[in-house]
């Protein structure tokens, strides 16, 4: 087996695993020498197809892999159905709506329908945003397992400089997991309210559906946004799991 095939095998293995993996597990699963695994992982990291959590010695998909999900998303058999759900949500709320996924370092917007009403928002299809602020990011993180969350905390150590900040984030994640959705105001963009609900593939969170609107015209609609966003996420989850 040549290096190209082995590199693609490693990337495919990491992509299909539900949680970060070790070089040893890659070597064992693919029957590739451990030294070769390390060498090829270095290449994948350099190209941002794979991310490395040094403290835990594990690897997961990188930003380029996540961004490429946008292309898959737009060509998948479920695109028309999920797009319809997003269009329905946009029509009901009359606000900007999006589907957002993530890797261990950032969120990536993979689809968006912008409101005709003015909104200054950082989310653009294919662009990354922080994974520790905002309803979308924290909802994605809330439904990950504890080891994954700890790896995210490590990757964002420069932003989580105190134990109080980390504790507050953990409390936010626990609340989101308990209630089944996330709400934020001005955490990424000043004056923007966000509501997000998780989309699942089996037991794993795959993405979130989010509604974003200016706070000044939407604080009285939070409960409405939660209802519509949660229903949309539920509908898309059902469609995805029909595959």
Outline the structure in words:
The protein is of the alpha+beta class and 243 residues long. The chain has two domains: 3-66, Winged helix-like DNA-binding domain superfamily/Winged helix DNA-binding domain (Arc Repressor Mutant, subunit A, Orthogonal Bundle), CATH 1.10.10; 76-242, GAF domain (Beta-Lactamase, 2-Layer Sandwich), CATH 3.30.450.40. The protein is built from nine helices and eight strands. The protein has helices at residues 3-16, 23-30, 34-46, 63-75, 79-93, 135-142, 146-155, 163-179, 222-240, and strands spanning 50-53, 58-61, 96-102, 106-113, 128-130, 182-185, 192-201, 204-214. The strands form two sheets. The protein has a six-stranded antiparallel β-sheet with strand order 5-4-3-8-7-6, with helices on both faces. The longest helix is centred in the C-terminal third of the chain and has 19 residues, at 222-240. The two termini are 32 Å apart. The model has no long low-confidence stretch (mean pLDDT 85). Residues 1-63 form the HTH iclR-type domain. It holds the Pfam family HTH_IclR. InterPro entries: GAF-like_dom_sf, HTH_MetabolicPath_Reg, Tscrpt_reg_IclR_C, Tscrpt_reg_IclR_N, WH-like_DNA-bd_sf, WH_DNA-bd_sf.
